[in-house]
Amino acid sequence: MHELSITQNILNIVNEHAQRAGAQRITIINLVVGELTGFIDDSIQFYFDMLSPGTLSEGAKLAIRRVPARIRCRACSEEFELRDFNWVCPQCSAIGGDVIQGREFLVESIEVE
Ligand SMILES: [Zn+2]
Questions:
Q1: Residues 6 or more apart in contact with residue 3 via CB below 8 angstroms
Q2: What spacing in Å lies between the alpha carbon of 65 and ligand 1's midpoint?
Q3: 46 Cα: distance to centroid of ligand 1 (angstroms)
Q4: Do 35 and 81 form a contact (C-beta atoms < 8 A)?
Q5: For the chain, what percent of residues have pLDDT higher than 90?
Q6: 9 Cα to the center of ligand 1, angstroms
């Protein structure tokens, strides 16, 4: 997915929530973005600035929390952080594993007025 469509999704979700809560406007949107999503903070911000005017999200601060990628080795079950896309297990040198963290993309919370 592209940042444009995911940013549009975020806006739809938070605007709907804020509206249902009877909020005047949204002040902060807390996002969680996994490293493996490939989404770039600046791009999300760019599309947010483009799409939010005229909605309850206009002027809200985007707070993005990046979540590092974590891998579980299939050979020895060691869990390690993926750095520089190096998939070699530091424990047993096996290559590859299962992603246990890093694909997250969600709205953690919003703050409204
Ligand atoms: Zn291993």
A1: 39, 40, 43, 44, 46, 47
A2: 28
A3: 40
A4: no
A5: 96
A6: 38
CA distances (Å), origin 22, targets 15, 48, 87, 112: 10, 22, 47, 9
List the one residue out of 54, 65, 64, 62 whose CA is nearest residue 25.
54
Domain topology for 3-68+101-112: hypothetical protein PF0899 fold (3.30.2320)
Distance 101 CA to ligand 1 centre (A): 17
What is the pTM for the complete model shown? 0.86
Q: Where are the domains of the chain?
A: 3-68+101-112
Element (H, E) at 4: helix 3-20
